[in-house]
Amino acid sequence: MLVPSLALAQVPVSPPRYGMAASHEHSPGGSLLIAYSREINGRLISESYLMQRAGPEAEAVVFVRRALDSYDGQEYIQWADSRACKDLITRLRNANLLEMPTLVLPLDDATRERGRAVGIHPPPAADGGGPYVFWGPAVGTGKDFQISAYAGPWHAWADEMELTLGTCWRDYQPSMDLMR
Asked: What are phi and psi of 52, to 5 degrees?
């Protein structure tokens, strides 16, 4: 016999919305470049979109959407625009220089040696909120990627993005009209 539980009645029906499918839904009309979430007093999600250019010679324009994610939906949505945010395009380009993580399962001498060569360290203990989680389209594979990091180059890149975007956030979506 099942007995209703008040605790179960309070469990949200759907989890927080982030990842590729959610980023496609949030698109302001551009193509997703990269997105990441971080846990700081809640989950903050930042999604970068390449918007259409006025012509082949025109400089790339990127809109960044940031939202506080909760079980009730996304709140406090803010926007940044590369036309008004100095160094945003440069910071985004720096992600092209980051290597993808390497998976090494140290099950024998050969893989343990490979692990030592790659520099595998035990995962750090979490000392705060969750890790950064990154996702985006993987070029040339027809697949998407998603990784998470408590430290390392991807984490450092996201911290730099946050510094760059710090004074760029606005409470309104940038206008597409400026692109003509």
From this structure: -65, 145
50, 34 Cβ separation under 8 angstroms? no
> pTM for this one?
0.78
Cβ pair 68, 44 in contact under 8 A: yes
User: Which residue intervals of 102-146 are DSSP H helices?
Assistant: 109-118
C-alpha torsion 81→85→87→88, nearest 10 = -30
67 phi, psi to nearest 5 deg: -140, 150
Q: Which residue has the tokens 């996304």?
A: 74
Measured distance between the N- and C-terminal CA atoms of the chain, rounded to whole angstroms: 65
Q: Cα–Cα distance between 18 and 36 in angstroms, integer? A: 9
User: Per-residue pLDDT for the chain (180 aa), expressed as one digit of tens each?
Assistant: 444 444 444 444 455 578 888 898 889 999 999 999 988 777 889 999 999 776 777 788 999 999 988 766 667 899 999 999 999 999 999 999 998 877 778 788 888 887 777 665 555 555 555 688 999 998 777 788 888 888 889 999 999 999 999 999 999 999 877 544
The torsion angles phi and psi of 8, rounded to 5 degrees, stand at -65, -30
